[in-house]
Prior knowledge:
Blueprint: E1 7-10, H1 14-25, E2 30-33, H2 42-45, H3 66-71, H4 81-94, E3 101-102, E4 107-113, E5 118-123, E6 128-131, E7 133-136, E8 158-161, E9 176-180, H5 184-196, E10 199-204, E11 210-212, H6 220-239, H7 274-284, H8 299-316, H9 320-326, E12 339-341, H10 344-347, E13 353-357, E14 363-367, E15 370-373, E16 377-379, E17 382-385, H11 394-398, E18 401-402, H12 409-412, E19 431-433, H13 446-466, E20 472-474, H14 476-490, H15 523-535, E21 541-543
Residues 52-54, 141, 147, 180-186, 188, 205-206, 337, 340, 358, 386-389, 442, 503, 508 line the site of 3-acetylpyridine adenine dinucleotide (N01).
Amino acid sequence: MNDRPDVLVVGAGFAGMYAVHRFRELGLTVRVLEAGGDVGGTWYWNRYPGSRCDVPSLEYSYGFSPELEREWDWPEVFSSQEDILAYANHVADRFDLRRDMQFDTRIVSVNYQEDEDVWRLTSEAGEVFEAPFCVMATGCLSVPNTPRLPGADAFDGLVLHTGLWPHEPVDLTGKRVGIIGTGSSGVQVIPELARQAGHLCVFQRTPVYTVPANRKAMRADVQQEFRENYRSIREMQQRNMGGVSGYRPLRGARAAPSVPGERASRTGILDLDAEQRRAIIAERGVETLLNFPDVYTDPEANEVANALYRDAVREAVRDPETAQKLMPKDYGLGCKRQVLDRDFFETFNRDDVTLVDLRRTPIETLTSDGVMTSDAHYDLDVLVYATGFDAMTGALMRANVRGRNGQALADKWRYGPVAYLGLQMRGFPNLFTVTGPGSPSVLCNMLVAIEQHVNWIGDCIIWLRETSRTHIEPLADSETEWAAHVNEVAEGTMYTAPSCNSWYLGANIPGKARLFMPYVGGYPRYRERCERETASGYPGFETG
Length: 544
Ligand code: N01
């Protein structure tokens, strides 16, 4: 391994993996430092039963290598965690990525050394690494959030977090299992836990809007058609708001409908009368509500959709009281990341599943053998936290990043993250973030966003070299103007409705500044802006 590489990369998820490949291609030396024991990032850590991607596999895959596209078979239309991790391992082997990676190395400080003009990174074990460029490929959902509940230390049973699930299978047979959280992770794991456990108790604070996931196996003819058309499909991704081509195979039957809500339709829900709305749901399922554009922008249309959604819950759940508890009432569809499920509502029709509504009966304390709410004690052997992540900024905060004059990123971002294009922060020269706040990031197909960022960063470093420059950081004005633009485009969408409390806004972490973090203006518009910077010699940056 190189002693002082050109670039240090933190994280060996899909971003860090591609960074190794791309930077090598550009003739740069690179070293990746990864806290986990191997590649895969989010798919390495989130091994809970039922873990699965919500973007179709043929699209949630690297586009940089036609050979890779030709040789990899996806078993399902929407892949499980196991299959995605197998793909990550295949990529690591095929491109010999691990040669430049160091695992079990958690970086605890990232410091700019002004006098020596390098980034100095220190690991938990005290190892020190230095390089002129540093890329934080630390992921958007990589710091699990475990709420501090009273009495948490008193609980004697097994404690698990979906985001840190053990590598060895967990035997829950006959166990009394409790789970806190009904976001994407909770919704995926709850039906699986119910199948395995003796009894499952679901502690729900906020009911969730979830729609059925596609369960189809991959058809060989569909995969083949993608292979034959991949170049134009990758082009289509570049022009799509969310980086998903939505390509429909012509030869076979249609492939899966891709991400719900993605199919463009100009008809609003308010254009239909009550009978037409009921008919379309009967024909296409409740997920069709996500295809009406006005649901995302018009509060009246949104409430019409929300009410129809609640009707669907009423129909799916046998016990009327449980159904009532499961109906979202105080926020709208489209405010949070859309959740997909397999058998979520059906699970509450089982005799061995109990739903506890924490809004009515909050948790008072954990005890040695369970959870005490304001009206009852629930005896548990296992408690699962499906309580999400300190999203988008959490990993950067945990790495303790300090720039020029020792300025802590935590101080710079006290009132919310400010970064130019989600790529760089003023005061932190030659430090780059991949899919950082202010970029489309979590609103885009991650693989597309990652490749675009890594390519941009690689090109930027090469340009600096070729023009005999050593530094780049955004101009103060660029950063401020971009932050204002990121805010402006999010305003008026359901994402920022006053009733909305999502991790996009940092609202899931007590004390975190409320600010909409990803760029909602669409991937193509964002990419063009990045390309303009590259083509015109980085006018939004200070270089030297
Ligand atoms: O986390 P979340 P997640 N007491 O923050 C509850 C991606 N992902 O891990 O809403 C009680 O969405 C919290 O309740 P509330 C995807 O981008 C993707 O599920 O704060 N409850 C909520 O119910 C997703 O959006 C996939 O009231 C507490 C839950 O915990 C993102 O990861 C699969 C609590 C957290 O939900 C995060 O999803 C999985 C407390 N003190 C994840 N604190 C797919 O690709 C929190 N909660 C399909």
